[in-house]
Structure formats: structure tokens, C-alpha cells
């Protein structure tokens, strides 16, 4: 059932563009201090499913807080955080995709799973 589909995404001004294979049955809406303020809807993918086509991770503004395990990367031009990257507790790299930044997604049809990120 968990079908991967290809999506393109990126920031607002176009400096950041990527292609990602994701299953949007698994979308979370997190209430942690940053997701709440940014209104993020997230899905998580391993590096094999993420290709940055435009922009350079190092050229993006990197915001870190709390335990500093996640790099919140946002475009220095338009300020949109279209993805974040970090390391899972078992040491694997992962990408957190801001589903609101993907093209051709019917956001109203998604059923985001609430995650109590504030607790962590
Ligand atoms: Zn931008």
C-alpha cells in the first residue's frame, strides 16, 4: 500500500529545488516550537529518495536549536524552509520534507498525523 511517488519541491524564490520520492500517507503535523510557528507538514525520507537539484545545502541558512540534531535549512533569499536534514538516533541521515513546499499536492486531501513534538 505504501506507494512512493515522485514530487518536485523547493523554496519560494526558486533558489532551492529538489526531487523527492515520498509516500504522503505518512505526513505529520508537529506541535514543537518550530513546526508550529512555521506551519510545517512533514514527511521523512532517507537520502536515497532525495535529490537536491538547485541550491547547495551549505549555501542555505542553517538554524539549529535545542539538541541541535536537526539542521533547519532555509533559503537566504526568500526565507522558506522547504526541507530539513538530520541524523536519527541510530545514526542514519534523514531528510524532513516540508510537504507544503511540494508541487501538485492536494494539501486538503492529506490526513496529517498529529505529533506531540513539544514533549521531546
Ligand atoms: Zn528561496
Plain-language structure description:
This is Aldehyde-activating protein. Helices cover 5% and strands 39% of the residues. The chain has 120 residues and is mainly beta. It has one domain: Metal Binding Protein, Guanine Nucleotide Exchange Factor, Chain A, CATH 2.170.150.70. The strands form two sheets. Strands 6-7-8-9-4-3-10 form a seven-stranded mixed beta sheet, with no helix packed on it. A three-stranded antiparallel beta sheet has the order 1-2-5, with no helix packed on it. β6 and β7 (70-74) form a beta hairpin. The protein is globular. Residues 11-13, 15-16, 75, 77-78, 80 line the site of zinc ion.
Structural class: mainly beta
Mean pLDDT, as a whole number? Answer: 92
> Strand order of the main beta sheet, please?
6-7-8-9-4-3-10
Total of domains? 1
**Proper CATH architecture:** Beta Complex
Poorly predicted regions are: none
**Molecular shape:** globular
In a nutshell, what does this entry contain?
The chain is mainly β and 120 residues long. Helix content is 5%, strand content 39%. The chain is built from one helix and ten strands.
Structural topology:
Blueprint lengths: L4 E6 L6 E6 L5 E3 L2 H6 L2 E5 L4 E5 L6 E3 L6 E5 L8 E5 L5 E6 L14 E3 L5
Parallel strand pairs: 3-10
Antiparallel strand pairs: 1-2, 2-5, 3-4, 4-9, 6-7, 7-8, 8-9
The protein binds zinc ion.
